[in-house]
Specification:
Layout: E1 2-7, E2 16-20, E3 25-28, H1 37-42, E4 56-58, H2 64-67, H3 70-75, E5 81-84, H4 86-116, H5 128-134, E6 138-140, E7 147-150, E8 153-159, E9 167-175, E10 178-184, E11 207-211, H6 225-238, E12 242-246, H7 252-266, E13 275-277, H8 280-291, H9 298-302, E14 313-315, H10 319-327, E15 332-336, H11 345-353, E16 360-363, H12 372-377, E17 382-385, E18 388-391, E19 395-398, H13 408-416, E20 424-428, H14 432-444, E21 449-450, E22 458-459
Parallel strand pairs: 3-4, 4-5, 5-6, 10-11, 11-20, 12-15, 12-16, 13-14, 13-15, 16-19, 20-21
Antiparallel strand pairs: 1-2, 1-22, 2-3, 7-8, 8-9, 9-10, 17-18
Helix pairs in contact: 4-5, 4-8, 10-11
The structure holds zinc ion.
Length: 461
């Protein structure tokens, strides 16, 4: 069998792995590259394979870097089923419609620029119409339920504890009378995060393809993330500022709301300021969370109050409401997308708020190189956006503990649960130097590792 990484090979985004066996040809994920211009350009390059020849695909979770190119796949002839968990099946149409809207808007904007330079207009990567064609192909499959495609191929989805509905894929393949088990980790979550379950420990496999986002790093656990969050909010509000949290609409936002509501009800000194969920996408996704309480962990199930509804939490789906938040000088907590500040309302909040020293921009997730989020996080003194240069006067903060990804110890622990060790561990979904360090770390522990290159098939037998 061959495994080819058509994305997330020595980068974090663009997850797309193709598996070819004697009888099947299928994808695990078909995600968008996200980051600087070079990465974005990769989304426009034709697929290295013929989408018409794929038998089906499996989707690990609803993040755009795992599902964002599915409409392009369908646009170019893919008609197979898309197997994913029921929660991801609910999320996928929401995520893809939003992505298509961004594609259409970005292209409109780009074409205005091109018209001024007398260049021909560009076609969007895909449209809302293409995204709608994905919906009938979505086929929900419950966790821990084996689906047999034939006598030679079956698979099971296990909880990856990364975002609601996220899955690890266990593949059972028979070729030439040999039985093989290959596990794709998808994105793996941290243990003990709010709301969702911990990642499932898998006991055995011949081969494992594992994500490496934070393979070289340990999340800061010196201070509990709740305490860090509370300190940042208290000092920002005390100086009359707003806390802007660029937040991924799926999971991070809901975990933050969960934590904020908990802090408020347990700490009388928590500032009583409005908390705005200023993201139409995150508002829709929060509804999906409300409908999938069966996926909550024991602690979330026990909670009597509703973590997604409390008096000072305000949902602002309308653009006008968002503008009001920007205009007001009153202290507030504002959660808005996108998570890496590449699009969405957070850019407007940054434009209005970055030059005010009383404000804070608080990062709670991975920032891809080249994104505005990464530039701010790397300490830029000024930023260029919307045709202007802005001085960075607001406080810039980061809390690593909210990451939806396991750190080095989490990933290592997950791999050490295999008994015996897998024949080989393929490292994907990490920046180049991270993967190198993670690989050395694992080799020192006795694992055999390999780093697949982009579009280069790896033979496993
Ligand atoms: Zn993810």
């Amino acid at each position: 069998m061959h495994i080819t990484c058509h994305g997330a090979a020595q980068v974090v985004t663009g997850s797309c792995h193709r598996v070819e066996t004697d009888t099947f040809n299928f994808l695990i994920d078909c995600g968008m590259f996200q980051g600087d211009k070079d990465l974005n350009r990769k989304n426009y390059v034709p697929f290295e394979f013929d989408p018409k020849e794929l038998d089906f695909m499996i989707l690990t979770h609803g993040h755009i870097d795992h599902c964002g190119l599915i409409p392009k796949l369908v646009k170019h002839g893919f008609t197979g089923k898309i197997y994913t968990t029921p929660a991801t099946a609910d999320l996928l149409p929401i995520m893809l419609r939003d992505a298509a809207y961004i594609q259409e808007k970005d292209t409109e904007h780009e074409n205005k620029r091109r018209a001024r330079q007398e260049l021909p207009p560009r076609e969007p990567l895909y449209t809302l119409e293409d995204a709608e064609k994905v919906v009938p192909l979505i086929t929900p499959l419950e966790y821990r339920t084996q689906l047999s495609m034939s006598e030679s191929l079956g698979f099971v989805l296990q909880d990856a504890g990364h975002v609601i509905g996220s899955a690890i894929v266990e593949l059972f393949i028979t070729e030439n009378g040999k039985h093989r088990k290959v596990v794709f980790s998808g994105d793996l979550g941290q243990k003990d995060v709010p709301i969702i379950e911990d990642p499932t420990a898998i006991k055995e496999a011949d081969y494992v393809v594992v994500e490496s986002t934070y393979g070289d790093r340990l999340h800061d656990k010196r201070l509990p993330r709740e305490k860090q969050l509370m300190d940042i909010i208290k000092r920002t509000v005390a100086r009359g500022g707003k806390v802007f949290i660029p937040s991924f609409a799926l999971e991070r936002t809901q975990e933050l709301l969960y934590t904020l509501s908990e802090l408020q009800s347990t700490h009388s000194d928590f500032p009583k300021v409005p908390i705005y969920l200023d993201s139409p996408l995150a508002i829709k996704i929060t509804e999906v969370f409300k409908n999938h309480t069966e996926l909550y962990d024991a602690e979330a199930k026990e909670r009597k109050d509703n973590p997604f509804s409390f008096p000072n939490l305000k949902f602002t789906p309308e653009t006008e409401d968002s503008k009001e938040i920007s205009k007001s000088d009153a202290p507030a907590i504002v959660l808005a997308g996108s998570g890496m500040c590449t699009a969405g309302r957070i850019r407007h909040h940054i434009r209005h708020g970055i030059e005010k020293p009383q404000n804070t921009v608080l990062f709670v997730g991975y920032q891809s190189p080249g994104t505005l989020g990464r530039i701010l996080l790397d300490g830029a003194k000024e930023i260029k956006m919307m045709g202007r240069v802005f001085d960075v006067k607001a406080e810039i903060q980061r809390i690593g503990g909210f990451s939806a990804h396991a750190d080095q110890s989490g990933l290592t622990g997950w791999l050490q649960a295999y008994e015996p060790k897998p024949g080989k561990v393929f490292l994907v979904h990490g920046e180049e130097d991270t993967i190198e360090k993670f690989s050395k770390h694992l080799e020192a522990l006795g694992f055999e590792t390999d780093v697949p290159g982009l579009n280069i098939p790896v033979t496993v037998d």
